Amino acid sequence: MFLVINYMRINLLKSKLHRAKITNVELNYEGSCAIDQSLMESANINEFEMLHIYNLNNGNRFTTYAIKAEKNSGIISFNGAAAYKGEVGDLIIICTYAEIESSKVNLHKPKLVYFKENTNIIDTVKSKIAEQKKGKIINL
Questions:
Q1: Which is higher by pLDDT, 135 or 92?
Q2: Alpha-carbon span 134 to 7, nearest angstrom
C-alpha cells in the first residue's frame, strides 16, 4: 500500500516594494540591486535574495539579487548589467517570491511596502493582502 502525500508547492508573492525610485546606477560594479537596509528589513528581503524588478517607466522586467545599502539612506541602486535596465528617477516595483506548501497557501500573507509619491520614504507597511476598494487600499 502506498501513502499519497501532496508535496505540491506554489510560488507566491513574499514581499513587494511598490513604486520605489531608482537613486543610483553603477555600471562598473559586479551586479545586483543595492537597497537601503531599512527598506529591506521593512519588506523582509534578505541579502542575496533573488529579486524580480519591474520598471514602470520603460517596461523592463528582470531578475537580480539584493545587497544591502547604507541604512536609512533611501538608496536603491541598479548595479552592473542591471544599470542598463533603468535610470535615476525611474519608478520600480521590487518583488520577492517564496514557495509555499499548497495546503498553506490561504495562510500566507505577503509583506507589502508602499512609498510616498516619488520618494523612497515609506508611506504604509501592510502585512496583509491589500484590496482595492472605492479607490483606496485597505487591509483585509
A1: 92
A2: 39
The third-level CATH classification (topology) of the domain covering 12-139 is Barwin-like endoglucanases (2.40.40)
Query: Which residues does 120 contact at the CB level (< 8 Å), separation at least 6?
Result: 20, 21, 23, 36, 39, 74, 75, 76
Count other Cβ atoms within 10 Å, centred on residue 131: 10
**99-122 per-position pLDDT tens digit:** 999 999 999 999 999 988 767 777
Which candidate in 65, 73, 97, 114 is catalytic?
Answer: 65
| pLDDT tens figures, 76-95 | 999 999 999 999 999 999 99
The secondary structure of residue 39, as a DSSP letter, is H
Task: Estimate to the nearest angstrom the gap between the alpha carbon of 93 and the chain centroid.
Answer: 6
Neighbour tally for 2: CB within 10 Å:
4
65 flagged as catalytic = yes
Q: What are the structural domain ranges in the chain?
A: 12-139
**Residue 132's Cα: distance from chain center in Å?**
19
In the structure grid, which three cell numbers stand for residue 102, read together?
Answer: 499548497
Say whether 32 is catalytic.
Answer: yes
